[in-house]
Design brief:
Subunit structure: Heterodimer of SbcC and SbcD.
Helix content: 25-40%
CATH class of the largest domain: Alpha Beta
Number of strands: 19
InterPro entries: Calcineurin-like_PHP, DNA_Repair-Maintenance_Comp, Metallo-depent_PP-like, Mre11_N, SbcD, SbcD_C
Strand content: 15-25%
Pfam families: Metallophos, SbcD_C
Protein name: Nuclease SbcCD subunit D
Number of domains: 3
Keywords: DNA recombination, DNA replication, Endonuclease, Exonuclease, Hydrolase, Nuclease
């Protein structure tokens, strides 16, 4: 049986205020085309379908269109909710959708109830384990403690118990949305440490032929039978080096796994550049980044004048500007109280300007504007005192 394993679509998410709806639509076009061209038997979506619990209407419409197209191909889809999704909202209508081959698994109480498919070699049981928030599902799953390892372990106990009662030779697949020990993280995954230690051991998935994981955005192999597909699009610059892809996974007659990566369409490459402003504007080697989404880190000791406007002329898709001076202020920093002692409001204000500009002091005009502002505040304070 041949599966397409994907996850972390995050429909409705933007990239540094850049709307990604067109890129997400292009990915779903690619997914449907791959299902058709590669004769996929089932699609596995391991959570975080949406980027937030109440997604924008455009994201819901995109999701609806994707489900209609997959159902139209007659290819079953098994989908779980992730930590970004609202399980209740995503699961609305699941009973009706199941008749069309769309199997939404959002209820923790159903972890041990599989979707059963079959091929020429016999049955395959697919178990959907939605994201399990420890404090909320501990009692439902009968876990001893409210932490991630315990609740996921309890869910897997239900999977293994159900599998043990099925015909000999039944192959098995689990979909789960979790942080598994050994996985590489990025900046764009929401922290799930609430409820204890976030990570769970890979051994929790022992006993099944394949675990299709979601949550981490990098495509990665923890073992031959336990893999993350990663997100189809980059959602932070920490993913600049990711190769965005899905897995095509084949289970043979004995449950052996054969996996192949299928690249996702890239709307625009990501680039991180670093240096002083004039260097970045003049560096001929940076020409390859002129069509990329760019994060520029400026190392100038003092903030240059209008750096964003100047950089955008060369890098029109610059979306992030960071300041990280090579050299900080030369004066040693005493405690805040020590630096304030005996200093006037004017001096304190001028010191603040120098600090935020990494050592460049206020000029005469700026000092005059600070003095005027401080005088106005003093007058207002005196008027208020008289009124009291």
């Amino acid at each position: 049986m041949r599966f397409l394993h994907t996850s972390d679509w995050h429909l409705g998410r933007s990239f540094h205020r850049v709307n990604l709806l067109a890129a997400q639509r292009a990915f779903l076009d690619h997914l449907v085309a791959t299902v058709r061209a590669r004769e996929i038997d089932a699609v596995l979506v391991a959570g975080d379908v949406y980027d937030r619990a109440v997604p924008p209407l455009a994201a819901v419409e995109l999701f609806d269109d994707a489900l209609h197209r997959l159902a139209g191909l007659g290819v079953p889809t098994v989908m779980i909710s992730g930590n970004h999704d609202s399980a209740r909202r995503l699961g609305v209508g699941s009973g009706l959708m199941e008749r069309a081959g769309i199997h939404l698994r959002t209820d923790p109480a159903e972890c041990g109830t599989p979707v059963v498919l079959a091929d020429a070699h016999g049955p395959v049981a697919l178990y959907g384990l939605p994201y399990l928030e420890p404090a909320m599902v501990r009692d439902t799953l009968g876990a001893r403690r409210a932490d991630h390892a315990e609740v996921l372990g309890a869910a897997m106990d239900q999977v293994r118990a159900d599998l043990a009662g099925r015909p000999t030779g039944t192959r098995s697949v689990v979909l789960a949305h979790a942080f598994v020990t050994g996985g590489a993280v990025s900046d764009s995954e929401r922290d799930i440490t609430v409820g204890g230690v976030a990570s769970v051991p890979v051994t929790v998935f022992d006993g099944v032929d394949y675990a299709a994981l979601g949550h981490l955005h990098g495509c990665q192999t923890l073992t031959e039978r336990v893999r993350y597909s990663g997100s189809p699009l980059a959602y932070s610059f920490s993913e600049a080096d990711h190769r965005k892809s899905s897995w095509i996974v084949e289970l043979d007659a004995d449950g052996a796994v054969h996996a192949e990566r299928v690249d996702c369409p890239v709307p625009r490459p990501l680039a991180r550049i670093r240096g002083r402003l004039e260097q970045l504007l003049d560096d001929p080697t940076a020409a390859r980044h002129e069509d990329s989404w760019v994060e520029a880190t400026l190392t100038d000791t003092a903030r240059p004048h209008e750096p964003m406007a100047r950089l955008v002329k060369r890098f029109p898709h610059l979306v992030s500007l960071v300041f990280d001076p090579d050299e900080g202020p030369t004066r040693s920093l005493a405690s805040y109280a020590q630096r304030l002692r005996g200093r006037s409001d004017q001096e304190i204000a001028e010191d603040f300007v120098e600090h935020v500009r990494s050592g460049r002091a206020a000029d005469e005009q700026e000092r005059a504007e600070l003095r005027s502002a401080i005088d106005e505040v003093r007058v207002d304070d005196m008027v208020a005192e008289v009124a009291r």
